[in-house]
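PROTEIN–LIGAND DATA SHEET

This sheet pairs a single protein chain with one bound small molecule, KYN, given as SMILES. Inputs appear in the order they were entered. The predicted three-dimensional arrangement of chain and ligand is reported afterwards as a token string under its own label.
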Amino acid sequence: MTTAQQTQRPTSAELDAADPLAAQREAFYAPDAAQLTSYLDGNSLGRPLKVTAGNLESFVHRAWGSRLIRGWDEQWMDEPTVVGDRIGEVTLGAAAGQTTVGDSTSVMLYKMIRAAVDAQPGRDEIIIDRDNFPTDRFIIEGIAAERGASIKWIAANPASGVRSEDLDGLLGEKTAVVVLSHVAYRSGFLADAEGITAKVHQAGALMLWDLCHSVGSVPMELDKWGVDIAVGCTYKYLNGGPGSPAFAYVNATQQDRLQQPIWGWMGADNPFGMTDAYRPAQGMRRFITGTPPVLAMQPMKDMLELIASVGMDAVREKSIKLTEYAIALSEELLVPLGAEIVSPRNVAERGSHITVDHPLFADVTARLWEKGVIPDFRPPHGLRIGLSPLSTSFAEVELGVAAIRDALSEMQ
Ligand SMILES: Cc1ncc(COP(=O)(O)O)c(C=O)c1O
Ligand SMILES: Nc1ccccc1C(=O)C[C@H](N)C(=O)O
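PREDICTION REPORTED AS:
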């Protein structure tokens, strides 16, 4: 590092002092320092809010313990779409009536991709990229086998992600649906959701975005972009807790055309009519299958209100500053030790995490976890630094990257 670099870059203390969202970090539960010194994995599991502990206790005592079965009539039957609408309003740019909550992300992806393929007669091709998260790829392989559809693969580009031109030569009159991640789980590449959606529509195909790594960190305008379907998880930047349920968005114009494949009573038009035949409910309720995971939906409500109070634009602004800082530190401290930054340098093409590659990073990550410095590792060589804007400080990033440098140089 040159002296010039040292003097040009603000210190982590200066960045924290200038951070308009710094006070929000107090809202998160803080384990004692022996357990945690730097949490860099909010993109895998967000931290709990302090208020969530009391709210869960009160849920047990009041809504569940006192109202008991009456809770379904009074509130819980509507919870999937009420919480869904709030996710839509606060984070997705989605008007009410287009978002619901339930199932795991994998199951929700299955339901939505199957519904999309079934709704496109004469079209039997699904497009996805080789670098997409395993569950997305596996589910599409399963659906292709089940429906006799074929898969058109976008070639892997691990240091980047999918650009509009990557669809050239693959998109056509046989394409039923295109499935892409808005932010790539490995590189953090942020796709041009609006441009790609428009291109997919020109070919008459449906567009499904996996929002797992963007929801709650990147502002979105799903309605404006004309997105057909989106699925995302709520345990990362929506801090819903381990295994909190997924959400699905279906554009109002597509809801009647889509029929999901797992016909359960809760997605039928009259669940308590105990009818002979399944008839799908109107609107988003048709995408529900079984009893909604109401308890597991509670923590995300607290985070949604915190995000609403500051706004997604402020969240994104901090996210950009955090990833810029993590890249600058990685360049100074890790690249000289042979590490390679494999995330986009252009902020407009980057979500809220970065990945740095080095052959020793699997061992480095294991050693860091013992010390309470928590990034994560994705094979073959990627150490991911996830920066959850409302809970991460610049000091934490500096401490974390310095610890990675120390572990790496000790092991070399
Ligand atoms: C892009 C992407 N899709 C899906 C998932 C997860 O699916 P599930 O919630 O079913 O484990 C993840 C992370 O776990 C992910 O990063
Ligand atoms: N759901 C999990 C359960 C256990 C451990 C990690 C996860 C993740 O979410 C991983 C994340 N989707 C990833 O991009 O690697």
